[in-house]
Amino acid sequence: EDAWKDFWLDPSAETSYFLGKDNIPFHTIMWPSILMAASTPDRRYNMPTNVPANEFLMLSGTQFSKSRKNALYVHEYLEHFEPAPLRYYLTTNMPELKDTDFSLEDFVARNNDELVGTLGNFINRVLTFTHRNFGGQVPAPEEPMDVDGEFIAALDRARDLAEDHLMRFEFKASLKALLDLARAGNVYFDRQKPWELVRNDLQRCGTVLNTCVQVIQGLAILMTPYLPLKAQELWEMLGLPGKVEHQSWRDVTFPAEAGHPIPRPHPLIKKLDVEDVGKRLGLATPAERAAAKAEAEAAAADPDCPADILDMVIGRITSVKAHPDADRLWVMSVDLGPLGERTLVAGLRGHYELEELDGRLIVVVTNLVPAKLRGILSEGMLLAAEDGNEVVSLLQPAGEAEPGDRLWSPVDAAVKGKVEFKRFQELDIHVELAEKVVAPHGLEKADLMVATPDGEGVRVLHTPSTVITLDRSVSPGSEVH
């Protein structure tokens, strides 16, 4: 029950906080302040030694989001596939210095080209060749050549490089050092040509294979932090006793014992098929995305509803201040999720107080051509309804929503171009009374916002998870702008 004291109170403990970039201010300013305030002369809490924060990992260009059903769940992945491909990809694609994207094609390609084609290939060809040509035993080495010593030295260097990067929390570079060692192994194997040596110089062939097995033993140890299950599987494939996780990184170059039996090897890692992975995980495959893009481009060329040319996105107001040169304008910073932070200038002073706006979720048109309003560039437009009684009401999500959620449209956002303000003014977007309109997930809401193309049909504005409604009641027919 006192184990927590090792982390919080032992002055020799180094504490590292792994978190996303959006949590940096709290864990580097507010949380240390709390720890300092809670400390006493005889009970001082440890401050964070390091805060290795990451940027954001996106999924197909957008943020992971439960509400948008844009997510990959590990437990669902593990129902179909081994952990190794996902562990490897998440490490090599880690957003250490910038946002990165989880791409289905890239995930499969890295597994097939790097895990299977480089690491797995080196291991499999060495162990298979050794098992077949030396009776399932590690061959005895003769006097090594310089090239053999250089390869063993490369194992030492890879260990040192991987360790150095690990200590600096540079996990991508650390794992890359190990993959580069496997690449060097394939080059060594190809240049030594054991398939020729086995016919012409059996002793030299045995030395080459003994050297390769020694490097593979070291690779099994070095792989453990990243691919622990595969490292243990490889350890057992080498016929070595105990747990690989109990081996020391200092001992990665221990000799391959001549005559040591090697069990019949098998491929360590399997190839993946992009269509199969996409289907099993519910992710759009390349063929599905191509079809969706073609459909979206056709819809953009001839939209059923003129408002579909607008890219309407949920945003959260993060700060508000008065325009220095205009009495009726607020200047806002708005978080649009994957689209980043934007500045909006809106004529809401006199209708909304500053305190009513800060932190509010709103609907923003993101693809309007930016325009200066009294000297300040506005990078979009928030949507509000206004009736003849001078009541102004912001559009807002009626339920769960996040910055970056897009309003549903048959036209994909990727094919929507920039819209001039004059073109926006020509659109007919207004309020309709919609009694008992059933929105996504069965939510019923009156006074919904709908877009109508000159009275020809209506479309409820909604995100994938919630409808868009009004902050205040306005008269039917009120214009949205």
Write the layout of secondary structure elements.
Elements: H1 4-8, H2 24-38, E1 57-59, E2 62-63, H3 74-78, H4 83-92, E3 100-102, H5 104-133, H6 146-167, H7 171-192, H8 194-200, H9 202-223, H10 228-237, H11 274-281, H12 286-301, E4 312-322, E5 330-335, E6 341-346, H13 354-357, E7 361-365, E8 371-373, E9 376-378, E10 381-382, E11 384-386, E12 392-397, H14 421-426, E13 429-431, E14 437-438, E15 444-445, E16 449-451, E17 459-460, E18 468-470, E19 479-480
Parallel strand pairs: 1-3
Antiparallel strand pairs: 1-2, 4-5, 4-7, 5-6, 7-10, 8-9, 11-12, 11-19, 12-18, 13-16, 14-15, 16-17
Helix pairs in contact: 4-5, 5-7, 5-9, 6-7, 6-9, 7-9, 8-9, 9-10
Question: Would you mind describing this structure in some detail?
Answer:
This protein is an alpha+beta fold. It has three domains: 1-54, no CATH class; 117-268, Isoleucyl-tRNA Synthetase, Domain 1 (Orthogonal Bundle); 312-480, OB fold (Dihydrolipoamide Acetyltransferase, E2P) (Beta Barrel), CATH 2.40.50.140. Helix content is 38%, strand content 15%. It has helices at 4-8, 24-38, 74-78, 83-92, 104-133, 146-167, 171-192, 194-200, 202-223, 228-237, 274-281, 286-301, 354-357, 421-426; strands spanning 57-59, 62-63, 100-102, 312-322, 330-335, 341-346, 361-365, 371-373, 376-378, 381-382, 384-386, 392-397, 429-431, 437-438, 444-445, 449-451, 459-460, 468-470, 479-480. A five-stranded antiparallel β-sheet has the order 6-5-4-7-10, with no helix packed on it. Helix 6 (146-167) runs parallel beside helix 9 and helix 9 packs antiparallel against helix 10. The radius of gyration is 30 Å and the shape is elongated. The protein starts with a helix and ends with a strand.
